[in-house]
């Protein structure tokens, strides 16, 4: 049976406004990068080349996938995504051939973004890497990224929590031209993320009034954890036949998030 390694999303619906907590300099840099991609002719005139590859790194659940989708949307590109781990632990030659077909499919549909999450599984340092097969798969990725391939209209975006594990050959300019760190959100960032994930939800007045305090007391929480807080609180309200999220739903969700994590506590605001 042929297993599918990658997913194609015609045009992602996520926009940069759906991502909270990105440092403002980073947003500016991303906007500038997008301008270059959108108008390569003008950029070439002033001697700037459009980037071929972007690396996003940072802790889990901070919005790297969202950001890759928003970039694709901004430049009107189809979104091909795969996880680096889908190319490993395969029979001889399968990892390399999956890489090839991912790029070939995307080239047929350009403009396209190819997004590889957990890229460290695929492009880890060669010395530490798992043998000949893994080496062949990485070599194929490097070949597809430059090796004389016509990658016009293709933007490669990779994401990792472990930038230190990546092979230097992979990080070389021309393969990866821009690297952005996507950090855990600060208090203001957490408030932005909370606002995004409570938009359209019916909250009791008490919950609404507690959102600033919640942002202050959730230091160390990722965007994914904040989003799941409100998902979990809403589900609890629905289960109990209510259409407004109440303080007890939020407290329940906070307890569950803290219990589900080894490193979480609410800090004093
Ligand atoms: P991983 O490293 O684990 O792959 P990631 O950094 O790619 O994680 P996402 O998959 O983009 O994180 O985030 C998961 C979900 O968490 C998103 O779909 C979104 O609902 C929420 N989320 C995460 N970060 C943010 C953010 N900065 N702003 C708004 N929502 C966020």
UniProtKB/TrEMBL annotation:
Residues 50-186 form the AAA+ ATPase domain. In the C-terminal section; belongs to the peptidase M41 family. This is ATP-dependent metalloprotease FtsH. The lineage of its organism: Bacteria, Bacillati, Bacillota, Bacilli, Bacillales. The gene is ftsH_2.
């Amino acid at each position: 049976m042929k297993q599918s390694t990658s997913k194609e999303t015609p045009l992602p619906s996520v926009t940069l406004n759906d991502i909270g907590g990105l440092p403002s300099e980073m947003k500016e840099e991303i906007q500038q990068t997008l301008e270059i991609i959108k108008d390569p002719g003008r950029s070439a005139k002033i001697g700037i080349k459009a980037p071929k590859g972007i690396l996003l790194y940072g802790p889990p659940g901070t919005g790297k996938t969202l950001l890759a989708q928003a970039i694709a949307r901004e430049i009107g590109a189809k979104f091909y995504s795969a996880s680096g781990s889908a190319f490993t632990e395969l029979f001889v030659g399968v990892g390399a051939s999956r890489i090839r077909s991912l790029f070939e499919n995307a080239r047929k549909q350009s403009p396209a973004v190819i997004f590889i999450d957990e890229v460290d599984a695929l492009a880890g340092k060669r010395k530490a890497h798992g043998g000949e097969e893994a080496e062949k798969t990485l070599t194929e990725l490097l070949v597809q990224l430059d090796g004389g391939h016509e990658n016009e209209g293709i933007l490669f975006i990779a994401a990792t929590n472990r930038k230190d594990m990546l092979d230097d050959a992979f990080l070389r300019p021309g393969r990866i031209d821009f690297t952005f760190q996507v950090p855990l959100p600060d208090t203001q960032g957490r408030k932005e993320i909370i606002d995004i994930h409570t938009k359209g939800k019916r909250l009791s007045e008490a919950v609404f009034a507690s959102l600033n305090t919640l942002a202050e007391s959730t230091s160390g929480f990722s965007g994914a954890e904040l989003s799941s807080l409100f998902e979990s609180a809403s589900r609890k309200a629905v289960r109990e036949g209510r259409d407004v999220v109440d303080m007890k739903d939020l407290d329940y969700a906070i307890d569950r998030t803290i219990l589900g994590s080894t490193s979480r506590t609410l800090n004093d605001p």
